[in-house]
Amino acid sequence: MNYGNRMKKIIFCLFSILLPFSCTQNNKTDRITYFSFDDFEKPIQLKGEILNMDSLWKPTGIYCEDSLLILVDNTTDCFVQIYHKDNLDKIAENIPRGIGPDERLNCWTLQMDSEYVWAFDMQLRKLTAYEKKDFYTESKIKPEKAVDFLEWPIAVVSLRNEKFVASCLTDETNLLSVFDENANRDTTLSVDYPKLKHESIPDFLKKRSFENRIFYDYRSNKIVVFYVYTDIIDVYDDELKLIARIQGPDRFVPELKRENNHVSAIKNRTRIGYLNGAVTPSEIWALYYGIYPEPGKDLQNRIFVFDYNGKPLRFYELEYPVFNFCIDEKNRLLYGLTENPEISVVKFKY
User: Fold this and answer.
1) Angle at the Cα of 164 from the Cα atoms of 162 and 167, rounded to 5 degrees
2) Residue whose C-alpha is closest to residue 213's, from 153, 159, 155
């Protein structure tokens, strides 16, 4: 995939429809705890191994579970390809492309819980659940259930309590929105945007300025929010109680502009914070950008690891930069998507 196509995915929402841990806290900045590179030990260098996967095309997402690697590719007839980790043989493929009742127009993200694989089609505003055991072993299985949103979520996760948490364009008042099993939004819930020191972002820019990616770990019952246009990460419980809000290492603020009802980036001022991450039962892994978006810089090699209280634990530098990754905690492996020069899967031992 070339830079232009991938950056469309990276900032899709922006241009679419319309020492020891020595951080300090400041009540004026809404419980934000700051961190810097100095809060980590020196970077841990990870050597990578490019995996030989002949059937690989142009994946944009990567996940792993047990003995499997799961790749998302929006250019293939089925959006999800499933492989054995050991021999890299393809086992199954699922979520066929199309307009039929069991077909989808895209697969923006996947989420795995104890029972289902959830696939989010942003274009259809549909979150679909598939039986996990069948999804991993058989091809083109039928969905178990689906939720159709009348509002417009750009990121959504399914919780254990039959609720859904989303970043929703149509709910401009709240950072996050909660929906029930019928996709009805809880209008009594308030989830505030961050309050940044010395900065006042207009209300009409807040939704775009605090665009985010949402991850949920069903084992720890924690929700993690990575912000795209600032270097903030939030941690919540499943009742949307804020556990930690951390900012770093560069502490920059969102800078966007609105002209003619369109929000856009400002050249040499708009920066990218966190686009992709991973969560385990005890840790948060975050791929840090900290850059102005421009050709040739959409792959990064710096990954921070935190606990669920936001405490910095480790800082890795990867031999091969990646644009997406997943964690095999049991085998202490990190799998990433890189370019070598074509898109490839790379494996790191940590």
Assistant:
1) 175
2) 155
